Amino acid sequence: MPAFVLKRLSAMVLILVVLTGVMFVLQSVSSLDPVHAQLGAQASADAVAARRHELGLDLPLTTQFWNYLVAVVQGDFGTSFRTRRPVGTDLLSFVPATLELALAGITIALLLAMLLAFSTTLRWRGAEVLRVVLFTGAAAPMFLLGIVGIIVFYQQLGWLPATGRSSVADLPDGPTGLLTVDGLLAGRLDVVADALQHLVLPATALALGPAVAIGRVLRSSLLTDLESDYARTGRAKGLSSRGVLFKHVLRNCVGSSLAMTGLQLGLMFSGVLVVEQVFAWPGIGQYVAQSIPVADFPAIAGVTLLLGAVYVVINAVVDLLQAAADPRIKV
Amino acid sequence: MRRRPGLTSSRRRVLAAGAMAAAVALTLTACGGGGSSAPNAAPTDTVLKLSFLQDIGQPPDPDIYYAGQGLMLTTNTYEGLLQFKAGTEKPVLEPLLATSWTASPDNRVFSFELRQGVTFHDGTPFTAAAIKASFDRRLAVNQGPAYMVADVATVTTDGDYRATITLAEPNSAFLDYLASPYGPRMMSPTALAQHAGSDHAQTYLQTHDVGTGPYTLSDAQVGSRYALKAYPGYWGKKPYFTDVELPVLTDTSAQQLQFKNGQVAAITHDLPSSAVESYSKNTGFTSYSLPTMMSGNIYVNPNKGMFTDVTTRRALQQAIDVESLVKQTYFGRGTVAKQVYPPNMIDPQLALQTVRHDPAPLTKVAAGLPSDQKNITVGYDSSNPDYQLVANLVSTQLASMGITAKVQGYPSSEVYGWVGTKGKDAPELFASSAWPDAPSPYTWGHITYDPDGGLNYLGCSSPETTSALTEGKRTGSSEAFSTAAARALETGCWLNFVDINDFIVAQSWLKGVEKAHVVTNPTALRLAELTVG
C-alpha cells in the first residue's frame, strides 16, 4: 500500500508539472493580453509596461515557469487578474459549489445506474421505459438537457428553481461550504431543502450520461456472471434469482462498475463546466469560463492544476476500492 | 438466463431525435417573444430584484472598476463632486457633493463649494479633506481610471467645505472627468486609513464600500451574488427600495426566463437585439430605448493588404451599406450614426460623417487586384452577438464587390493586445462598440485617434488629427474637435455606423426607469429613483 501511494503521488506530481508546462506554452503562443484586459482602454504604454513587469510577464518563459512552480509548491497560486484575489482563496470559495454538484450528480448517476442494471436484469416492469428515457437523456448534449429541464420544471411546471445554489439570503457560514451539510450542521432545514431543490436539475443533467455508462457496464457484468457456473450452482441449490444476484453475483461485478464510476466522476468535472454555465452555478466551471476571455492565466492554471490533481486522486481511490471489493486485485 | 433484446440502434436514434426536436420546440416556444404576457405582481417587501449577466468581472471599487454592468454598484454606492443629470438626452453637469463650481478660463484651476451634512457609510462626515485622500488613493491604486487625476498638481482647502483643484496642464475635460461614472469618487478617509492594509484598502473594497451614495454594498460574492442596502443616513432623497438583490446569471435565456416569471424586475443590459423586437411588442412588460453615448464602429487596418492604400480605405467606407447593417441588426435600439463622434457628445451640426454609400469605387479597386489579395478577415468583438451579425453582413456586402471575407470573433483581451503593435496580428476589418469614459470629445478622440490611444486597436493616426485634439483639450473648442473628426475620417480608418441606445425591459409595475437613466452611464440606473406604481 505505501508503495502504491508513493507511486501515485509521484505520477501526480509529474502529471501536474507537465500540465503546467503545457499551459505556459499555450500562454506564450496565445495572443490574449492579460495586461490590457486589466488596465482597460485608457492605459498608457508606461502603465502597461509597468504592470507587465510587476506581473513578471516580461521575464523569459522558462523563468516564469520556474517561478510559478516554486510559488505553487509554497501554496501560492498567484492572484487572479480578474477578481484581484489570491487564486487559492478563489478556489476555496468556488470549489464547494462544484463539489456539492458533482457529489449530487454522482449519487444520482449511481442510483439510476443501479436501477437501470437491476431492472433490465431482473425484468422489472417499466425497465424498457427507463432504458429509453436514460438512453435518450445520455444521447442529448448536456446543455440541451439543462435547457429542457429549465423550461419544463422551472418555466412550465414551476416546481424547481432554474439558476444558482440557493434562494435563501442569510446562509449559514458553515465549515464545509456545502450548503446541504452546513445547513444540517446549523439546524437550518430551510437551507437544506432549498439547496436540494436547486441541486435537482443541474445534478440530473450532469448524471444522465454517467448513469447510462455505469449502468451498462454493471448490467453487462451481471448478465455475464448470472450465466456463470457458480450462479447456476446457486440456483440449483434452491436460491432465487434475486438471491443469487444480490448475495453472490453483485460483489463480483462491482469492480468493473467502480472503474467506470471513477472514470465518469473524473469526466463529470469537465461536464460541470457546461452545466454550471447553463444553471448559473457559482463553481469552478463558471470561474474558469469567465477567466478565459480575459486571459486570467493564474485562475486558469489554478483550476487546471486542481482538476488534474482531482482526476489522479479519483483514479487512485478507485483502484483502492476495486482492490477492497475484489481480493484478486492487488495494488 | 436469456439475454433480453435491447433497443435497436435505429430505434434509439429515432427516440433521441424525437426528444431533441421536442426540446428545441420547447426552447423556441419559451424564447419566442411577441404577443403579451400577464403582468407580474409588484413586490410588497421593498426588495428590488435585478441581475447581472456574468460576473461584473472586477471588484466594485471605483478606482479599479473600468467595465460596464458593475456601474450599477459603483454609481449607487459612491458619489463624486459632480454628476450628469438623469433623464436627459445630452450630458448636462449638475451638482452632487459639490453644490457649485467655477473653472478658470485656461481650464487649469477649479474651485468647489461642498455640500454640508453628508456622511460616509462608516459615519465619517464628508469634508474637503476627502478630496485629496480620494485622489491620492486613486493614484496609488493606479488602475485604468487613474489617468483622470494624473494631472492634478494641488488640492487646497479653505475650511471644511471649500476646495480648489489645480492641474499641471490645462484640460477642458476635467469637469467631465469629475462627473464621469468612472471618475474619482469621494471615499471616507477614515475608512481608507482603517482598512488600508498593504494594498490601499483594495482587499476591503472587494466586499465593502466607503462611499456616500444612497446604497451601501451589503453582499459581494464573486460569480454568485451582489446586494445593496439603503443607507439610512443618506443626505438626499430616501430610496423606495430598501434592498436590491443582484444575483449573477450566466445566460441571457435564463435571465429572460426569470424576468418573464417575475423573479427579476428588469433587464437593464445586454439583451440581444434579436429579443428587442419581441419585448417592444409585448404589452405585458414596459420597454425603454434610452439615449447613451455608445456607438458601433468598423475599424480598418491601414497596415495590411489592400487597405494600406488610403484611397481603398475611403472606398471601403463608401462601400459599406450602413442603413442596411443598422436595420438588420439593431431593430429599435440603434440609428444610423450621423457624426464621427459617438452620439450626444457634440453639437449635431459639427463633426459630421459625410460618407455617401457607393459600392462602385471598391468594386473597381477589387477588380484590379490579383485574386490572392482579395481575401480579408472581418473581425468582431466576440462578447457581443450583435457584432457577429454585423461582421457577417459586411462580408456578404463585400462579396458582391468581389472581395472574399472570412468572419472571426476575438475576445477583448486579444483585441486590447493589438494596441501598439501596428495591427500586425489584427484582421483587416474589425467591428465593435464602445462608449467614452466621459462625454468630452477629447476623451473619445484621444483614445480612438491618437497614436497612443487605448482604443486605437489597429494603429492608425494622423498628425493633423492629434494636433487638433491637443488644441481642443487646451481650449475646449468644439471647432477644434470638429476638425479632428474630419481629419480622422479622411484617413479612412474608422466608420462610426450606429448610435446605440440602452434597451431596458421592466415589469410594468416598476416606475422611474427613465428618471433613473443617465446618458453617460450605460447599463446602470440610479436605483434611488425607482419605485412601484
Please explain how this structure is put together:
- The complex is a heterodimer of chains A (331) and B (533).
- Helix content of chain A is 75%, strand content 0%.
- Chain A starts with a helix and ends in a 6-residue tail after the last helix.
- Chain A is globular, with a radius of gyration of 24 Å.
- The longest helix of chain A is centred in the middle third of the chain and has 38 residues, at 189-226.
- By secondary structure, chain A is mainly alpha-helical.
- Chain B has 533 residues and is α+β, with helices and mostly antiparallel strands.
- Helix content of chain B is 30%, strand content 21%.
- Chain B has 16 helices and 20 strands.
- Chain B has helices at 9-31, 71-77, 129-141, 174-179, 189-194, 252-260, 273-281, 310-319, 322-330, 360-367, 385-399, 412-417, 441-449, 463-475, 478-490, 513-516; strands at residues 47-49, 52-53, 82-84, 93-95, 98-103, 109-114, 152-157, 162-167, 215-221, 225-230, 243-249, 266-267, 285-300, 334-336, 375-381, 404-410, 429-434, 494-507, 510-511, 531-532.
- In chain B, strands 12, 13, 14, 15, 16, 17 and 18 form a seven-stranded mixed β-sheet that branches. In chain B, strands 1, 2, 9, 10 and 11 form a five-stranded mixed β-sheet that branches.
- In chain B, helix 8 (310-319) packs across helix 10, helix 13 (441-449) packs antiparallel against helix 14 and helix 14 packs antiparallel against helix 15.
- The N and C termini of chain B lie far apart (71 Å).
- The relative contact order of chain B is 0.15.
- Residues 1-34 of chain B have low confidence and may be disordered.
- The chains are: A mainly alpha (331), B alpha+beta (533).
- At the A-B interface, helix 2, helix 3, helix 5, helix 6 and helix 7 of A face helix 1, strand 11, helix 6 and helix 12 of B.
